[in-house]
Amino acid sequence: MISVSHLNVEFSARPLFSDATFVINDKEHVALTGKNGAGKSTLLKILAGWQQPTSGEVAVPNGHKIGYLPQTMNLTDNRTIREEAALAFSEVKAMEKRIDQLGEELARRKDYDSPEYAELIARLSHETERMKLMGGHSWEAVLERTLTGLGFAPSDLDRPTGELSGGWRMRVELAKILLAQPDVLLLDEPTNHLDILSIEWLEKFLAHSTSSVILVSHDRTFLNHVTTRTLDIDCGRIIDYKVKYDDYIRLREERREAQLRAYENQQKEIADIKDFIERFRYKATKAVQVQSRIKQLEKIVPIEVDETDRSCLHLKFPPCSRSGDFPIICNEVAKSYGSHQVFSHVSLSIRRGEKVAFVGKNGEGKSTLVKCIMGEIPFTGELKIGHNVEIGYFAQNEAQMLDETISVWDTIDRVARGEIRTRINDLLGAFLFGGEAAEKPVKVLSGGERSRLAMLRLLLQPVNLLILDEPTNHLDMQTKDVLKEAINNFDGTAIIVSHDRDFLDGLTDKIYEFSNGKVKEHLGGIYRFLETKEMESLNELDRPIHNDIQTNTQPQPVNQGAVDWEERKAQRRIRNKLEKTIKECENVISETESAIKILEDQLSTSEGAANPELATRHARLCSQLDKAMEEWTTASEKLEAMDALS
Questions:
Q1: Chain centroid to CA 49: how far?
Q2: How far apart (Å, rounded) are the C-alpha atoms in residues 216 and 189?
Q3: Alpha-carbon distance 35 to 235, whole Å?
Q4: In the prediction, which pLDDT does 559 show?
Q5: Are 479 and 432 in contact (CB under 8 A)?
Q6: Do residues 427 and 482 make contact, with C-beta atoms less than 8 angstroms apart?
Q7: What secondary structure letter does DSSP report for 318?
Q8: Which residues of the chain are under the pLDDT cut of 70?
Q9: CA distance 147 to 85
Q10: How far is the C-alpha of 330 from the C-alpha of 521, rounded, in Å?
Q11: Distance (Å, rounded) from C-alpha 122 to C-alpha 136?
């Protein structure tokens, strides 16, 4: 348990937050929210003991271990990935050594009946029991599972950490913190360095963790899956909501509406009292009533309304010329670095108006293919950019390509055209550059500020093909919503490389999965893709329902009603999953059949019949249709079987 009492933090006499008081209970999972700059990272540093508050107290029980992952760290060491992660088990390894020493001493001694021998046995038994509670001799397997879950291949574990990029190095640090099993986990934007599959693994790990968890994240889905309580830093105060993130958004709005109603009623009451005082101030017969009203006015405590930012900005890309039907066509594209094959045999076509996502583990080639499209690196195979294509590209290093000699305001003024120039201040405010921040020179901006400025600059340029490589890493939720709405309303084509599921949800209609040197196409949105990866062929539904219930060789008392209820609940979950799969398959079948019809119309012409690329695409779509039909049939049969048994 962590107890925070009357915490105050000031920077240069400016209060960051004041009189913060709350308690984090054992095993509680808490989201820490607020605008960029509200003090989330500062509060985590204070809880971790890295920084001292201006005043107030943070109480942590004696013996409680705290694991803290900051957003950035200076990391240098000369160990391998495995050796570095194994530092988390230093206490376990020391215990192993003590157990071995006790065992050796027992083997040497012959005084079996002496009190000292009995004491040695007791100590050995105690240390062995502690060892078992801490994971015993299986710590190496746990280490490998954790590193694999965070995206490392087994062959990577003996690589020196000095070869890793900053993002992968942070994954090692995250693994060390998780493996140490601290009583409290403080995580500041842990998903920034993870791909979608690693984020899902971390979600499940934290959801089942017995540690208290306090985390900062701009990943809405991640917060909803992991946390059950939300601390909101707003206008210098910390407001406690005992609910998960989505419910907090609703309750925050209801709270503010109630405050507004109370404020308006109070203002009406104050106006009525002042009106009475002014009307009868100089009438002797009303002197007593006037004095009473004056005292009543003095006793009124003003109602405060939370100053949450309610501005709603809608951005739209400026109009641009129409591109050809297929802005991007890849045929047998391959890329390697020396003996390392990043990917090969990549053949794909992206139609005008499609919005697609590139997903997969880090290092599988998503950004590499983007660089091939942009002509930044050589490759083999054929890659065509369609007719009249104008590309807007947001690279991962886009922030470093800004002109450092000009101000934030001038950066946007140079690309804004037409009516949007009258709204530059509003645009900058929506991207957290309001007021004096607009006059800052670009060279003094932080990495996150530069990324936001580069994104805003891109949003104002007329393009018909948008390529975004990890655009949300440094955007808060409000800014991400502005960007997502702009892309949804974008008339052109979009390729988005991202690990943010909530951002991709409802934004893309096709997923390209990068895995094991191949690129595989999946029709549908991000959650359909994730569901397919979890249960590729619905084989797990072949298991009888009762197998999910743990059994024991010894007879145990069973609450049959509870078991029946659990089985019914499991049946409902499976039924809902099957019905959802059937519906999604029907949508995919309909879309694929429409696409095949368009291709067949083209192939029926002499020009189309002579185009081998159309025939290849037709064969690939037919294969996709067969797969969707097979999945639909399997799910339908299973649903019918369930209906027959019920």
A1: 26
A2: 5
A3: 10
A4: 43
A5: yes
A6: no
A7: P
A8: 12-14, 36-37, 73-76, 130-137, 306-315, 446-448, 474, 534-570, 644-646
A9: 8
A10: 13
A11: 18
Q: Say how many C-beta atoms besides its own lie within 10 A of residue 198's C-beta.
A: 22
* Angle, in degrees to the nearest 10, between helices 447-459 and 477-488: 20
463 token code pair: 């393009």
What pLDDT is recorded for position 447?
66
The tokens describing 522, both together, are: 């999946």
For position 550, what pLDDT does the model report? 37
Any idea how long the chain is? 646
CA distance 266 to 601: 70
Residues 262, 303: contact at Cβ < 8 Å?
Answer: yes
How many Å is the maximal CA-CA distance in the chain?
Answer: 109
Provide long-range contacts, Cβ within 8 A and 24+ apart, for 159-167. Answer: 159/80, 159/81, 160/78, 160/79, 160/80, 160/81, 161/75, 161/77, 161/79, 161/80, 161/81, 161/84, 162/76, 162/77, 162/78, 164/81, 166/75, 166/193, 167/192, 167/193, 167/362
- Spatial distance between the Cα atoms of 432 and 477, rounded to a whole number of angstroms: 12
Specify whether the CB–CB gap between 111 and 139 falls below 8 A. no
Q: What is the pLDDT of residue 534?
A: 63
Q: Is 383 helix (H, G, I), strand (E, B) or coil?
A: strand
Matching residue, tokens 């799969």: 581
Beta strand segments in 475-574, E: 493-497, 510-515, 518-523
Instruction: Please name the amino acid found at residue 343.
Output: F
Report which of 90, 108, 110, 87 is spatially closest to residue 98, judged by C-alpha positions. 90
Contact between 27 and 210 (Cβ < 8 Å): yes
127 CB contacts (<8 Å, ≥6 apart)?
95, 98, 99, 102
Query: Which three-class secondary structure string do you get for 128-187?
Result: HHHHHHCCHHHHHHHHHHHHHHCCCCHHHCCCEHHHCCHHHHHHHHHHHHHHCCCCEEEE
3-class SS string, 495-515? EEECCCHHHHCCCCCEEEEEE
Residue with tokens 């005043």: 55
Q: Where are the alpha helices (DSSP H) in 227-286?
A: 245-280
